[in-house]
Structures are given as C-alpha cells and as structure tokens.
Design brief:
alpha+beta; 6-stranded antiparallel sheet; two-stranded antiparallel ribbon; globular; disordered C terminus
C-alpha cells in the first residue's frame, strides 16, 4: 500500500505552548506506518471565534507533513488520543486548548464522514493554517477548490493577525527536515 501525503495542523493556546507543540510533533513523528516529512516554523495567531470560544490567549500554530498508510479514520483516532494525552479538554473541545490537531489534507482525498471532513472545511479561510502550509507545500492543490495553497493564502479573507514566532525555539527538528535528502523514498 502506498503512503499518502497528509498535512496535520497543530495549535496550542494554554500553558507552555512551545512544549505542547514540540510534544505533539514528537508524537506525530512516532506514528506507525508513517514518516515525518516536514515541520513548519511556528506562528503566533490571535484566537478566531468563528466556530469556537478559544479564550483570549494567542495560539502557537504550525503544520506537520507526514507520509502514512494509516487510514483516515485510524489517523483521526490516533490524533484524538495525542490531544487527550496532552491534556485536551474533551468536554469543551471549542474552548481554550493545550493541543488541537486537525487533518487538513489526506492526499487528494475528499472525505465526508461523521467526525471527519477532509479537506478541513475552513482551512481556505485561515491564514494561521495557510501560512505554515505554504511554507511546506506551496503548490499543493486543494482537491475540491482546485487552487494551490499559495493561491488560497493570497485570496484568504482573514483579518486576524498571524506572525512568525521570533525567535523560533530550538526543537529536536530544527525548523524543518533537510529538503536535500534524495535517496530515502
């Protein structure tokens, strides 16, 4: 079975946000039948109140690119478990959060199942998702909108502030894996 390119958004606005993000990336890098292919830089973003009440604390956000042959539902189960292990409040999922993980893209699949909609239904309107995503795969084409990530970012009507975290924390990944590895696929 061939591996799919999967992009997972992560964000935290509670406690030690850098530590929560680092731990989430570490746990995602350990997924079975998967390989960590890229990690974006971290971005700070003001909370967005469109479908949630996340509190007033700013988020740290980023995107992870993995190659996996886990099924979308298996991946969803695992990322919900990662959220729980990092202290996510299951009773108040729309409130402030230690860790929020969202499957943004699962290859070019379009999935509409209970609890799982891929591509993520609001990603095209969120600069805090599109900015780190464009850093990893600017020419990735949204399977239903037929626009590249860079095009979606240029067209995003999102007034919320998103800025690169400075200075970037040193993590075990640096800012991203070397793009020059040619022989391991």
């Amino acid at each position: 079975m061939s591996r799919e390119a999967v992009f997972i958004g992560f964000g935290s606005n509670v406690g030690n946000r850098i530590d929560f993000c680092d731990r989430a990336v570490t746990l995602l890098s350990l997924l079975p039948h998967s390989r960590l292919a890229g990690v974006s830089l971290l971005y700070e973003s003001e909370p967005v109140f469109d479908h949630a009440q996340p509190g007033n604390d700013w988020f740290l956000n980023g995107v992870v690119h993995i190659e996996t042959d886990l099924t979308p539902q298996s991946l969803l189960t695992v990322i919900r478990e990662i959220e729980r292990s990092l202290g996510r409040d299951e009773e108040n999922r729309s409130g402030p959060r230690t860790m929020d993980l969202d499957i943004l893209f699962y290859g070019d699949r379009v999935i509409n199942e209970p609890g799982l909609t891929v591509p993520h239904p609001r990603l095209h309107r969120r600069r805090f998702v599109l900015m780190p995503l464009s850093e990893l795969e600017p020419l990735f084409v949204h399977p239903t909108m037929r626009r590249t990530v860079n095009q979606l970012l240029a067209e995003a009507d999102d007034p919320s502030e998103v800025r690169l975290l400075f200075p970037q924390p040193s993590t075990r990944y640096g800012s991203r894996p070397a793009c020059s590895s040619t022989g391991d696929s």
